[in-house]
Design goal:
Layout: E1 21-27, E2 30-35, E3 38-45
Antiparallel strand pairs: 1-2, 2-3
């Protein structure tokens, strides 16, 4: 993961481009997360935790 660059002597930071992650339910209860333009990396899980209260 790249860290945004910071200019010396200023408080300005350069923003990192947004990363697009999508989820796909491959079968009931199985979800795969993929990153846009990265077909080599993915995460599969049987358990998803909702971060919203």
């Amino acid at each position: 993961m790249d860290v945004p660059a910071r200019r010396e002597g200023t408080e300005d930071t350069l923003e990192e481009p947004a990363v697009s992650v999508t989820s796909h339910e491959t079968r009931p209860g199985k979800v795969v997360f993929t990153e846009q333009n990265n077909s080599d990396g993915w995460i599969a899980t049987d358990l998803i935790v909702d971060l919203e209260p």
